[in-house]
């Protein structure tokens, strides 16, 4: 239920996840669900606590970028940068490193370190000539960072490249674009025409005859005459048609206190 609600009703999704945690609080998947829904609902303290518990139970650092963003949401960009510089961050996969770089750039912007924000995004995955699933988001974040320091021409170039990457990846505004049939494919039509001709030729020639064995010609002729005689006798007979047939992380409990005035959600 929480998974279905998280995009449209994140607060309700969070409440469903909390209810599930009361029954299976020691399960990593449950703590992960609580963390994700809390994050979507803007409860950054609760989200950070749940992600820490999830990491301790599962041993996975996959949510480090979101944890760093929670630090930003709590008004602590310095701690977000600490997460980005941690040893655990080095083991993230390419999409994870991209997300963490985007969060780090946002933290630099929070600290009014605009040039440093640009530098945070200049990572190996920032390749203008190659497109991956994370490329459009990274390119746009880089374009925004460049615009913030007055590098407008470069910003526009990277913004355009984000669109190019989306098109190359088949991404767009419609998740399921309409498919329009523009008519017969020429090669397919040629193949079908050739097949029709083969069928006509085969019908005109009749069934292929077997080559008779040596010495069997006379027997075949006699058999043919007998068949014709029987056929004339039965000509009056009509043919008959055939039938077809909750948290234990004391270290981070203080983060569950909400600070509405400090909250803001990071974006690339």
Structural description of this entry:
- This protein is mostly helical and 268 residues long.
- It has helices at 2-5, 10-24, 28-40, 44-58, 64-73, 77-84, 94-110, 114-121, 135-148, 152-169, 186-205, 217-233.
Offer a quick outline of the entry.
With 268 residues, the chain is an all-alpha fold. It has helices at residues 2-5, 10-24, 28-40, 44-58, 64-73, 77-84, 94-110, 114-121, 135-148, 152-169, 186-205, 217-233. It has a domain at 77-173 and 249-262: Serine Threonine Protein Phosphatase 5, Tetratricopeptide repeat (Alpha Horseshoe).
Task: Please give the count of helices.
Answer: 12
Tell me the span between the first and last alpha carbons. Answer: 28 Å
CATH topology of one domain: Serine Threonine Protein Phosphatase 5, Tetratricopeptide repeat
Quick one: biggest sheet?
none
Provide the β-strand percentage band. Answer: under 5%
The top-level CATH class of one domain is Mainly Alpha
Low-pLDDT residue spans:
174-185, 207-223, 229-247, 257-268
Total beta-strand segments: 0
| Gross geometry | flat
Q: Report mean pLDDT, rounded to a whole number.
A: 76
Order of helices and strands: HHHHHHHHHHHH
The chain-level structural class is mainly alpha
Quaternary structure type: single chain
What CATH architecture of one domain would you give? Alpha Horseshoe
Radius of gyration: 36 Å
Q: What is the share of helical residues?
A: 55-70%
